[in-house]
Design a protein that fits this description.
The chain contains 7 helices and 11 strands. By secondary structure, the chain is of the alpha+beta class. It has one domain: Jelly Rolls, CATH 2.60.120. α3 packs across α7. About 35% of the residues are buried. The structure holds succinic acid and fe (iii) ion.
């Protein structure tokens, strides 16, 4: 392959050691531009502290069945198996993470506050890469996040992560080339959706609403990137080692990422309309619309 653009520094390190930082607006604007351009913001001095009684949760034994995560969706805890009092304590622990993570985002990026939607939060006690899955679900391959059953019409996926490993083990990611470069690489081979396919997928309940052309492209981008062994090996990329006690934030629908190793992490997902960004032109929606020279969310 010869069309690759070089990789810029994927991380921006932030020095805050509190979940409630007070920022001057100009600093906020600087961090927002970096985040929206596709950087991973890394707060290396921002641990999530577990209470003494919560230490026992640092074990994959609490995972129920084949699920990789214990998650908080609405009021319930999913993916957890344990006695009723443990369910309550697990719920409280993930909820506390969720509140801190959401509070952090609103303080770093006040412009998002009134527009973001808080989605799932999860605790991930499993060893990365231990459960073997299909190539499509294999997150050790570079990818951008895209949900097959939940079309989002360009709405952003913003994620906050914290490594809570207590044995000094980093979470190791690979981070790939800028979104626009990756999109430019794969887009020429992604066909337009077949007429009527969005309605059919919805009627068959494969999707929860009608898939926009944006969703169609993002899913193909996700799949083609993961399926392309040459791209996985040879595309520009950088390994990042995220130490315990570090919190990091990125738009995971934009940052090409792959989880290589690690254990014990918290994660909070937030959704944000493109219009609520400080710089909407950096969104995957606007970038893809520019490359395709057409609107991608009509209908
Ligand atoms: C992913 O979002 O692809 C996985 C992140 C992780 O488990 O570190
Ligand atoms: Fe991912």
């Amino acid at each position: 392959m010869d069309t690759f653009t070089p990789l810029s520094e994927p991380l921006l390190q932030l020095e805050f050691d509190t979940w409630r930082p007070a920022l001057q607006p100009d600093l906020s604007a600087r961090f927002a531009l970096a985040l929206e351009k596709g950087k991973v913001l890394c707060l290396t001095q921002l641990p999530f502290l577990l209470a003494p009684k919560e230490q026992e949760f640092l074990s994959p034994e609490w995972l129920s069945g084949k699920r990789k995560n214990i998650s908080l969706e609405g009021k319930g805890v999913r993916g957890f198996s344990g006695p009723p009092d443990a369910v309550l304590r697990m719920h409280a622990m993930i909820k506390r993470y969720s509140e801190q993570a959401v509070g952090l985002v609103t303080r770093l990026f006040p412009g998002y506050t009134d527009h973001m939607r808080v989605a799932r939060a999860s605790f991930r006690p499993g060893v990365v890469g231990e459960s073997k899955t299909s190539w499509r679900k294999d997150d050790s391959r570079l990818h951008v996040d895209a949900f097959p059953s939940r079309p989002n019409r360009g709405e952003r996926i913003l994620r906050v992560f914290t490594n809570v490993n207590h044995q000094g083990i980093p979470r190791v990611w690979r981070v790939g080339q800028p979104f626009e470069s990756a999109a430019g690489h794969f887009l020429p081979d992604i066909a337009r959706p077949l007429p009527g396919s969005a309605k059919l997928l919805h009627a068959l309940k494969i999707t929860k609403s009608e898939r926009s052309e944006y969703d169609h492209i993002m899913l193909h981008l996700h799949d083609r990137m993961k399926a392309d062994a040459d791209y996985q090996k040879n595309a520009p990329q950088q390994e990042i080692r995220i130490q315990p006690g570090t919190t990091w934030i990125c738009f995971s629908d934009q940052v090409l990422h792959a989880a290589m190793s690690g254990q014990y992490m918290f994660e909070q997902t937030l959704h944000l309309p493109v219009a609520a960004q400080y710089h909407p032109e950096w969104s995957p929606l606007r970038v893809l619309e520019k490359l395709r020279a057409t609107r991608l969310t009509a209908g």
